[in-house]
Design goal:
Length: about 500
Amino acid sequence: MSTSRQGIWPIEPHTQAKHHILTYYLKAWFPILSQVSRRLLYVDGFAGPGEYSGGEPGSAILALKVATDDDKLRAQLTKPGMELVFVFIEKDEDTFADLERKVNEFKPNLPSNFRIEMRNSTFQHVVDVSLKELDEQNRKMAPSFIFVDPFGPTGFPMSLVERIVKQPSAEVLINFSYQPLNRWFLKDPSKHPRLDELFGDASWRDALSIPDPSTKEDFLVQQYRRALEARGWRGISFRMVNKHNQSQYYLIFGTKHYLGMLAMKSAMWKVDPEGTFSYSDLSNVDQPRLFSLDMDEDYSRGLAEQIFQRRRGTTAGKQSIIEDELAWHPTAIEKHLRRALIILEYESNPPKIVEVQKADASLRKARTYPKDCRITFGDSRPEDGSIGRPTLIRDRPVGGADVGDDGGDQAGDGDNVGAGLKPAPRDTGTPHYKEGNGDGIGNPAPTWNRLWQTSSIAIEEGSLHSEGASFVEGASSRRRRPRLRIKGATVATKKRAGWE
Ligand SMILES: C[S@@+](CC[C@H](N)C(=O)[O-])C[C@H]1O[C@@H](n2cnc3c(N)ncnc32)[C@H](O)[C@@H]1O
């Protein structure tokens, strides 16, 4: 255990909560992304010293631990042809030296296909140079998770967001440092240009005339989220409350993919089992509070209403409801979907779900919604109160992946959760992460071969986007580089370096 000294500071409870969210998410992100890309990039942009004064691991070491501690995941991440690149960036020289020491201690435990890039520099500079390099070579960044965890609201301007978001599969978890922003930046006009950079324009300045502190806070957080969304990242936020009961910061997650949203919500639910997506230093992260059943019911009812409003009078596959409604609902996760469907089918008068059909036309158990089922919603709009005749709208055909469907008699059965993939086209065997009841590592997705053969997802490897392409399992056991088969032909993929 380290002693307290300059450069290493004690860990705060909200930092532990932040680390829990990061850990839970990465436990989902690594397995899923390793199914679709042989190269993954984890960027810790404000890495810190790698350790806290009580010996607790910092974010950089946590990421390495997630990728190596679990035998099954380690095996998945070290399969032939796979490469993981960890980029740890830290501006402060002493802190960087501490980080380097911790990472070096960890290195003997690292598989040979894990590469670590250490940068004693600013996040902005490192990302700027790497993106320029990629642009010059007309290449794209490998699927990446970027953790942006500064002490204050600087170092991550919206102009940089705009460039990162253009990459095909980049996700961010941003520490939106509200406390320093409110204390040191809002009150000091000389710092306002820095906030213009953070938000991407001057629209945040309306906050200066909002007298009520909590209205002002809400406005600024929403403004920032809107700015991210306008650039292409949809997301959710998690509020961290300090011991004075004030918002210390918000963790804001940005993704383009429904799987990322589902996995991050799942991580946030684990840290805050009430689903308010907040954590207070006055509570204990290791002793989750009791579930609030009332709130669960509220979320389910809200989701039910949202689904019905969008789907009334139509027929939809359950998978499309997961992708289009459940994923983007601000709080609901899989358990709420089943409850929402039960509310619509059994507890609404007249019933708002009028038919549920399994793909193979076999009978389903009552109150269950297997993942391949199609659901017909009534339309109770007609003035006479009758349920209108549902019309069949064109919807994605039922997905082809065949894992995780247990017949649909459990909460969350057969739903697809995971992280960070490019949006799957309709009617694919979408890779799965099935929520387990353990520590958040999902079931393994379908095997590499099966996944690609059943799927027409755009392929990351070599930036090739092609339908009907498949990686050849086993080819890389003799050759280091994976090979790609396209419509019968087999070609070698090019070797990649840097952030590509
Ligand atoms: C909140 S701490 C990071 C904690 C770490 N992510 C963790 O969870 O263990 C922020 C770190 O970012 C570093 N930093 C500040 N500005 C930076 C910049 N522009 N680029 C990179 N690092 C920076 C600070 O020196 C500090 O060590």
